[in-house]
Amino acid sequence: MPDANAWVTAVVVGETRETATARALRFSASGLRPALAGQHIDIRLTAEDGYTAQRSYSLSSAAGADPIEVTVERFEDGEVSPYLVDGVAVGDAVEVRGPIGGWLVWRPSDDRRPVQLIAGGSGVAPLMSMLRTREAARSTVPFRLLYGVTDPDRVYYRDELDRIAADGVQVDLRYSRRVPEGSPLHAGRLTRDDLAALVVPPAEDPSVFVCGPTGFVEAVSDALLALGHPEERIRTERFGPTS
Predict the structure, then answer these.
(1) Which residues make Cβ contacts (< 8 Å) with residue 238, sequence separation at least 6?
(2) Residues 26-70 pLDDT 10s
(3) With DSSP H G I counted as helix, E B as strand and the rest as coil, what are the percentages for the chain, rounded to 5?
(4) Smallest Cα–Cα separation from 148: which of 185, 169, 118, 125?
């Protein structure tokens, strides 16, 4: 098997603009081992003067997919994300290594318990990998997605989520600042009552995967524990500073 710590060349072979500040990039990187749903890769950029910068990005493509995909949100003061969102073009090459991670991972061969996915903002990327893996494997394990964003313009994979919902996966979108025009929903952060109403109940013993900014993940995890979800059933991945 290829060494997950070895840097290899990855060529951009496709891209999709997900939002005004986010872009999905598809890479051909034959030197990588097949990924599991939920893993991430490191991407390294090298300037002409030899300066390098690298960041980790969750894979949003299905397990074992070729090409692989990452979905990148632009941070204005970032060293890597502005180039990946607004600069790199199809045919350009970067360096990648991985895939990395074994905690926030779902396999179709796992047990048959239902799966609850909870995403905050760009944290939906590795959970999308799980949804795509489920579909590719023709798994019938029950899945739900609860996806929190600031406003409707920040939703990743909108058309694909609509299709997935039509195929029987429960998809719930909630908005912290602005709801869609005409929506009966109210803007606000996810509450314990929201989670009680929208998450697979503890009695059904779901596997729960939570990914998003640190504050979001901590608040959701605390609420899930208070609702009776066992700690060992909750797997989290966060980004940003700790509280």
Answers:
(1) 123, 211, 212, 213, 214, 216, 217, 218
(2) 999 988 999 999 999 999 999 889 999 999 999 999 999 999 999
(3) 25, 35, 40
(4) 118
Buried b (16+ CB within 10 A) or exposed e, 179-190: beeeeeeeeeeb
Q: How far apart are CA 84 and CA 48, in angstroms?
A: 17
Tally of domains in the chain = 2
Confirm whether 107 is domain-assigned.
Answer: no
Q: Is the dihedral of CA 201, 202, 203, 205 positive or negative?
A: positive
Q: What residue numbers bound the domain in which 66 lies? A: 8-100
Whether 208 and 144 map to the same domain: the answer is yes
Q: Is the dihedral of CA 156, 162, 168, 170 positive or negative?
A: positive
Question: How far is it, in rounded angstroms, from Cα 35 to Cα 60?
Answer: 10
Q: Provide the 3-class DSSP secondary structure of residue 89.
A: coil
Inside any domain, residue 108: no
207 found inside a domain: yes
- Judge whether 3 lies within some domain: no
120 and 230 part of one domain: yes
Distance CA 93, CA 212 (A): 28
> pLDDT, tens digit, for every residue of 184-195?
999 999 999 999
Euclidean distance between CA atoms 44 and 90, whole angstroms = 17
Same domain, 69 and 141: no
Q: Looking at the structure, do residues 218 and 138 belong to the same domain, yes or no?
A: yes
Burial of residue 117, with CB atoms counted within 10 A of its CB: 0-12 exposed, 13-18 middle, 19 or more buried: buried
